[in-house]
Each structure stands twice: as C-alpha cells, then as structure tokens.
Design brief:
Helix content: over 70%
Length: about 240
C-alpha cells in the first residue's frame, strides 16, 4: 500500500506539473477556438438544408420542454444541480489521480467535496465547461444504439432535456464570486470558458446531428477556422 500511495502521489505531481505547463497555451488555444466555433456554427446555417433535421427537431423538443418546465416550476438551483457540480469536480479529481475523500450535498442546494493532493485548475473549473448530464446521455444513446441497432427518437428528446438542464445549471453557476474561479485564476477563466463551452456543446450538437461522423466534421471545421484565424493574426503582427 505504501508503494501504491507513493506512485499515486508521484503521478499526481507530474500531472499537476503538466497541467500547469499547458495552462496558458490552452487559454490561448481557447481564444482561437471561440471565433472558430462561431464561424463553424455559421457554416452549419449555410448548409442547413443538408442537416439531419429529424434528429435536431426531436432534440429541440427536449430543449423546449425542459426550458418551459424549468422556468415555470423550478426557479432556483437545487440539490440535483449541486450534486452534478460536485460529481464533476470528483470525476476530474480522480482522472488526475486526486482520490476523493468526501462529498456532501445538502437539501438546500449547498455542497462541497474534498480530495487528496494539491489540486489543479482542471479540477476547479471542470463543472463550468463539462456538461456531465448531457455527456452521460450521449453514452446512454450509444449503448441503446448498440443494443437495439438504432437510436430511437426519445433519446434525442432526452439529449435535449439534458443539454437544457446543463445550460440552466451553468448560467446559475457562472458568477464572479465563485471560489473555483479564484483557484483557476480569473483571467484564465475568462479566456478559457467561452471556447471550452463552445467545444463541449458543439460536440453534443454535432453528435445529435450525425453521430460520430458529425463530431469529426465539427472538429474539422474548428481546425480549419482556427488555423485560418491564426495565420491572419500572424500576418497582422508581422506588419
């Protein structure tokens, strides 16, 4: 057990060092991703007649349904949102070799989690760009497709509900008094989150529209527009 604990601690240290090393390059990359994502969404509008509207309509039904329910009946953040928030922290803590020691959520909507080790910016900021419920629904849809051989319409409705739920949750969590933003750094948070959220929700949209082929197409667009913008900026600074 001693050697396992020592190896875990060493691995955690290297991961934290690596994340600290790439922190600002990632922030700069997200600065390029944000306008590239906006251009990609514009491209989707241009080719709107070629999109898989069957899937997107059911996806939209799910979004609209949850939005109406949330606005009319559930006006404040509750324990479910807090639980997802803390679970997302926990998931990224475990992914970066920080064992979770405690997780607690109260009925009033408060909650916290603790973990071993120093931590890193990825753990702190994960709940603000990673829509856990929506991505869980994607894994469920993949499982359903593998079992029955196709993806039924209710899955796309469920994905719409999950995405809308996460959007409402994110909107309530994003405020300047979040201690997690202080841990990650306010400047980094401002630079990182817009692009990261565009990638996350763009991935979900692309999956709904055309599955894994849609995701590949979306990231090709992101790469194309990011590369294009990078060279435009390079030429500008060269004079």
């Amino acid at each position: 057990m001693f050697f396992i604990g020592r190896s875990l601690s060493k691995g955690r240290y290297y991961i934290n060092c690596f994340l600290e090393l790439i922190k600002w390059p990632v922030a700069v990359a997200m600065l390029l991703v944000f306008p590239a994502a906006l251009q990609s969404f514009q491209r989707y509008y241009v080719i709107r007649n070629q999109l898989n509207w069957h899937n997107l309509i059911y996806f939209g039904i799910g979004i609209g349904f949850f939005a109406v329910v949330r606005v009319c009946f559930i006006m404040r953040r509750g324990a479910a949102e807090t639980m997802e928030h803390e679970i997302t922290h926990s998931l990224f803590a475990m992914m970066t070799l920080h064992p979770v020691r405690h997780l607690e959520v109260s009925d009033t909507g408060g909650g916290f989690m603790t973990f071993s080790g120093k931590g890193n910016w990825l753990i702190a900021i994960a709940p603000y760009f990673f829509p856990l419920t929506a991505f869980t629904m994607i894994f469920l849809s993949i499982a359903v497709n593998r079992i029955i051989g196709y993806t039924p319409d209710w899955v796309f409705i469920g994905l719409g509900v999950a995405v809308c739920y996460n959007l409402f949750s994110f909107a309530e969590q994003l405020h300047p008094h979040q201690t997690d933003f202080k841990v990650a750094g306010y400047l980094f948070t401002i630079l990182f989150l817009p692009g990261a959220n565009c990638l996350a929700f763009g991935t979900i949209f692309a999956f709904v529209e055309r599955g894994f082929n849609g995701i590949v197409f979306f990231y090709r667009l992101i790469y194309y527009y990011s590369r294009q913008d990078f060279f435009v900026l390079l030429d500008y600074f060269k004079g």
